[in-house]
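Hey, I was hoping to borrow your eyes for a little while. I'm sending you its amino acid sequence along with the backbone structure tokens. Take your time with it, there's no hurry, and the full record follows here.
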Amino acid sequence: MKFSLIISTLGRPADVLEFIRTIEAQTCRDFELIIVDQNDDDVLANAVRTLSPAFPLKYRHVPGVRGASRGRNLGFELAVGDYVCFPDDDCLYPPRVLDDALALFAKKGVDIVCGRAADETGRDINGRYEPQAQPVTTANVFSTQIEWMLFFTRSAFEGVSGFDEDVGVGASTLWQANEGQDIVLRMLASGYRGWYDPALYAHHPELNVFSPDARMRRKARGYARGMGYVLGRHGYSLGYFARYVVRSAGGAVLSCLRLNFPRALYYLHVTAGRIEGYLCGRRSSVPLAKGGDVFLEPEQAA
């Protein structure tokens, strides 16, 4: 078995079923799909029982378990593939993604292959990505990947004991993103090598950062905390970190000048979250208590 695809899911049964339907079109046929269902109900479980896909499908129901990183690690316990990847429960893989990733492993002799998020036209979404193919290093790890377009050799994933379950969406901490950068940095520190190619991409709903509502701003705060925490815990310098603070703070200023105050609030949340996470990561201390915010929106502070 070449590939094990592991989806950790909560609250998106229709999206998971769409992924199962579209993954049938992969030109690489040597893969298995493992679904880790964190839903408390049986909606997805009942739907999966009716399926007869042309590939091995494994299902694990873990109601009450939360956290994408925890779910992925649980799914890996069932995996038998030589390579592993972790699609989001609402992403879609183009037909050649697995074959293209496999070709990069063979051509570059690496342990990690990274791609990007794009819309149907190939335009970057949900992040900033390097325009040229290149080795993955500590200097570019935040611009050469997104979690659901990371492919690992089995030995590399096992070599760092999988994802840190305290980092990532749904974790019990405040660090709600960048579990991908964290695991890749741990792999690089252990001597594993990675390669990024912008020609390798897949699709995902685009986050609305142009007119974000309060929910999106709170989500951005959690994601930013995750980024700051990973930067801090891995020893990135204050100068390196400052570029990300300046970028988001500058976004807040520009949004104010354009009278887009919801977007300005969004960037203030990003700025504050990055600072909170970085300070805690540098101290390697107990995470901030929920509610220990540097900046609160009026509706949250009330």
Summary: The domain at 3-202 is CATH 3.90.550.10 (Spore Coat Polysaccharide Biosynthesis Protein SpsA; Chain A). Residues 261-283 form the longest helix (23 residues). Strands lie at 3-9, 31-37, 57-61, 83-85, 112-117, 134-136, 150-153, 194-202. Confidence is low (pLDDT under 50) at residues 285-302.
